[in-house]
Specification:
With 955 residues, the protein is an alpha/beta fold. The chain has 30 helices and 34 strands.
């Protein structure tokens, strides 16, 4: 047995692949395991999976092949810097430490990464050799032309080659800096998308525009030769010497600076996308024609990042000179790991190769799989209701019913796909006949741009009936585009004069969810040999609906890699509006989850009433009293409902401190709601902002799904709305009605059915005891006259075992803020740059004003210590969980926000708080303390016995 491990790492998308005796046994990208999209670190997890799949230890590997030549790449880096010096020193300085630390001593690094067990040979093929090998060796052809196109490897940016039997030869190369891949990435950057990941977006945006900049591109930026080779005018680009892709000259040519990510996409951007897409397709067609003329081959194999441009691939297939085209499913750098391993087996060792009629890629289902026992244990532990199916037919029948009802289904079956496409193992599925499905899946499930197209999966035997493909043609890897057939197109139902994104709403065919604005579709054919269960599902859907097509997109949220494990799938399902989750033979339905609220009840305030009680003191239950009020069942008091917010504010008795700033604080926040929604108006932007905040992100990860959460002092409700995107019930309470109106407006606009807002006095809670799994009070207690008293009013609202999180100003961390407040008072507010938050760039004027007012002109605030809060916890018989900053100096955020941490000693507390004089200055001296309400086991047993007795009596 000969085992060859292929590795790609340290640039964009690390991966590992294992070839045993010429058979591709396993392959996976590192991002799937670490959950860091485009993870470029050494693929330790992917390597471990591959070895486990084959039951091989690192010491038993015969060869390790790395997908490029680091020394040759360093030669290019050094020579490029010398060519542009002294310009480009900054980019050279940033790249150099990485090369010295890892890439110049790669064999030693790889040995260490493999635990020191591997003692044999390392092989370093050139980057484009790895691409070419990944394209030809798994293909079904005995002889074929090979075309590789990407950004840059060592020096090569494109190659033409040929494969025959068990050997490949590179015949021609295009050299850096002239690169079709980098040209396309420059326009990706200019249109506001991320390089090396946003190219899909640019391709999806192109059909909305007109290619009116083609002449400008060809006349100024690039000279394209008849053979597809090109030469770029580097004065328009900055990637050789700078940290950006384009230069000022490029910006002048196209009418302005690069679009910022949060800026609106205009028709100019769409036209630019259409133009570079047109140029790219032309170069791909010319290159393919040249490869055919150079090699005389009937077939073509494609790889490299540009080979993921499925529109260009479709044109090569339809208009090019080749009879058949095969494209590596993992055409980018991840596929280089597979190519490097196969290159060793066939080219270095000279082992024979027998092409497989379909291909040797095993449907690209090369990742891990999980058994039904692991899935059931996960669901049981999470307390998630589910249905189990013993029969495939029954499972497919139930999933078909969900799809036909217009619901989105997460489909998790068998081994995970290798490559960027979901191919029916880790897919989100929908009904293509639903005209709203594209927008629903983009905005409410993927949380991404509405214009992004979705691909159809179609029964292979029916593909030519719906798409312009020859009968029997296949594309199991979703790598080419085909037009929807004329008989399935519809006359424009919308405004024929619509332009740009306005064209999105026009229904173009009887499968509108997968028909792009140019009538194209990125087709995946599904056959019974490769995709047994997925084929059965499509057949079931066809039998029930008459349609052999399903929407198929990757099973992930917009910022995450495709799910790998059942836990990833469940988390993604619970974190979005996916309606059903099929994990192997189990089916989980969102409507059966305890926290679920139907979307049609988004504006129904009756959802709140079971949690509520009259705040006046009698604790009476509330009932609706018409459309605009609720009434207490005991005292008869009436509470108004205005702008969707229940007004439950009830004055409290005089505080023991004798100081009650409530009215002043209430008036302050009515005039200065903070923070507001001025810089984001979509769910995606709210989620992205919240995920950038470490606390909000870790809180979201820590809070159990199906839990009930109360946020007291929610302000404009951004955290409440964010937490309520996932499958939880969240109630935000505040005393400022103006802030709550902003929160409610956002909630209704985005149909967050599980979130509600209430105006409330925290000293007079309007909720029944023991209703909440988590109570958050992040920043309001220090603006009251009795912080401890307010805290003690909130603790009874917790269920046994529930958590309370309180945020306060630290006495030491607030010292510099108070010093600045004095300076601002005597200077009339001058010198605001002294505040670390206000020194940040790109903060709106409204947000600057709100922060300044809140920090330096607030009518009342108090400061506290760790020891003081620990006394509160002890008085209320709560268990300490952790403090942030840590009370012991340990890491503040370790991914386990609600997991217990040591409380530390008084010395630890003093040291932590003194450190806050400096570190806490950035957040205004703010600190968090988290506690848990103990579970009374005896009381639980007593309630259980009483419940059993009541059941017996009922019977």
């Amino acid at each position: 047995m000969t085992a060859i491990l292929g590795v790609s790492a340290f640039y964009h998308d690390s991966a590992a692949a294992l070839v045993v005796d010429g058979d591709v046994v396993a392959a996976a990208q590192e991002e799937r395991f670490t959950r860091r999209k485009h993870d470029d670190s050494f693929p330790a997890n992917a390597v471990a999976f591959c070895l486990k799949q084959a039951d091989i230890k690192p010491g038993s590997i015969d060869y390790v092949a790395f997908y490029d030549k680091p020394l040759l790449k360093f030669d290019r880096l050094l020579e490029t810097y010398l060519a542009y010096a002294p310009r480009g020193f900054r980019s050279f300085r940033e790249a150099l430490p990485i090369w010295i630390r890892r890439k110049l001593h790669l064999p030693r690094y790889l040995r260490e990464a493999l635990g020191g067990e591997y003692r044999r040979r390392f092989v370093f093929p050139e980057h484009h050799e790895s691409h070419a090998a990944s394209a030809f060796f798994p293909s079904p052809f005995d002889e074929a032309a090979i075309l590789t196109l990407d950004g840059v490897g060592e020096w090569a940016t494109a190659t033409v080659g040929v494969g025959r039997g068990n050997r490949i030869s590179i015949l021609e190369k295009t050299r850096f800096p002239h690169s079709l891949g980098l040209l396309y990435s420059a326009f990706t950057y200019y249109c506001g998308f991320a390089v090396n990941s946003g190219e899909y977006k640019l391709m999806g945006l192109a059909p909305y525009g007109q290619p009116r900049f083609v002449d400008a591109i060809l006349g100024h930026l690039v000279d394209v030769k008849p053979d597809g080779s090109l030469r770029m005018d580097m004065s328009y680009f900055n990637y050789c010497e700078g940290l950006t892709m384009t230069s000022a000259r490029f910006h002048d040519l196209f009418g302005g600076p690069p679009r910022r990510e949060d800026e609106e996409l205009t028709e100019r951007h769409m036209d630019i996308a259409a133009s570079i897409q047109r140029v790219t397709e032309d170069v791909m067609l010319r290159s393919a024609a040249h490869a055919h003329a150079k090699t005389g081959a009937k077939y073509l194999c494609l790889a490299g990042g540009v080979a993921l441009n499925c529109v260009g691939n479709g044109r090569i297939l339809r208009e090019g000179p080749f009879e058949r085209v095969w494209i590596q499913p993992a055409a980018g750098d991840a596929g280089g790991a597979l190519g490097a391993a196969l290159l060793v087996w066939h080219q270095l060792l000279g082992r024979p190769r027998t092409p497989v009629a379909s291909d040797a890629q095993h449907a690209s289902w090369l990742g891990p799989s999980y058994g039904s026992m692991a899935i059931q244990n996960l669901l049981e532990h999470a307390g998630t209701p589910y249905r189990d199916f013993a029969c495939d037919d029954d499972l497919c029948d139930a999933v078909t019913d969900e799809l036909a009802a217009g619901r989105v289904v997460g489909w998790f079956q068998g081994r995970m796909e290798f490559g960027p496409r979901a191919l029916g193992a880790r897919s989100l599925l929908g009904d293509p006949r639903d005209a709203h499905m594209q927008s629903v899946m983009n905005l409410k499930v993927k949380f991404r741009e509405s214009f992004r197209p979705f691909a159809p999966s179609v029964l292979r035997e029916r593909a030519s009936e719906y798409f312009e493909m020859p009968p029997g043609a296949e594309d199991p890897y979703m790598l080419t585009v085909a037009p929807v057939r004329a008989e399935h197109r519809l006359p424009d139902a919308g405004d024929r004069s619509a332009t740009g994104i306005g064209r999105l709403g026009i229904v173009r065919s009887d499968i509108p969810a997968v028909t792009h604005v140019d009538f194209s579709a990125r087709v995946q054919t599904v056959d019974v040999d490769r995709h047994r269960l997925y084929h059965k599902l499509l057949s079931s859907f066809h039998a029930k609906t008459g349609c052999p097509v399903l929407v198929n997109t990757s099973f992930n949220l917009g910022w995450d890699p495709i799910v790998c494990t059942p836990d990833d799938a469940l988390h993604t399902f619970m974190s979005s509006d996916i309606d059903a989750l099929c994990l192997e033979k189990t089916l989980v339905l969102k409507r059966e989850q305890p926290a679920w609220v139907p979307p049609e009840q988004t504006e129904d305030l009756d959802v709140l009433l079971p949690y509520m009680a009259c705040p006046s003191g009698d604790g009476g239950a509330l009932a609706r009293a018409g459309e605009d009020a609720a009434r207490c069942s005991v005292c008869g008091r009436r509470y108004a409902i205005e702008d969707g917010v229940m007004q439950m504010f009830w004055p409290h008795e005089p505080l023991p401190t004798g100081v009650d700033p409530t009215d002043a604080v209430k008036a302050f926040y009515e005039e200065t709601p903070f923070p507001n929604y001025d810089d984001h108006d979509s769910l995606r932007s709210l989620i992205e902002k919240s995920r950038r905040g470490v606390y909000a992100d870790q809180l979201n990860r820590a809070l159990p799904f199906n839990s009930t959460v109360l946020e007291v002092g929610c302000g404009t409700g951004q955290l409440s709305n964010f937490l309520g995107v996932s499958c939880r019930r969240v109630i935000g309470a505040d005393m400022c009605l103006n802030s709550l109106r902003l929160a409610e407006r956002f909630r209704r606009g985005h149909r967050l059915s599980r979130v509600r807002f209430v105006q409330m006095n925290l000293f007079r809670p309007c909720f029944r005891p023991e209703q909440f799994d988590v109570v958050l009070c992040n920043g309001v207690l220090h603006h009251t006259g009795d912080p401890r008293g307010g805290f003690e009013r909130l603790v009874p609202l917790l269920k046994p075992g529930g958590f309370i999180v309180i945020g306060l100003y630290n006495r030491y961390g607030r010292l510099l803020n108070r010093l600045r407040a004095g300076l601002f008072a005597v200077s009339g507010g001058r010198g605001q740059w002294l505040d670390p938050y206000l020194r940040k760039g790109r903060i709106s004027s409204d947000k600057r004003r709100a922060w300044f007012e809140d920090q330096y002109r607030h009518p009342h605030e108090s400061t506290h210590t760790v020891g003081e809060v620990l006394e509160w916890f002890e008085r209320m018989k709560l268990e300490f969980v952790r403090g942030i900053p840590s009370t012991t100096g340990a890491p503040d955020f370790d991914g386990r926000l609600l997991a217990p941490a040591p409380v530390g000693t008084a010395f630890d507390h003093a040291r932590s708080q003194l450190r806050q004089v400096v570190t806490g200055n950035r957040e205004g001296g703010f600190f968090l303390m988290i506690a848990r309400k103990p579970v009374d086991v005896q009381a639980m047993r007593k309630r259980s016995v009483q419940g059993a007795e009541a059941s017996v009596h009922a019977v």
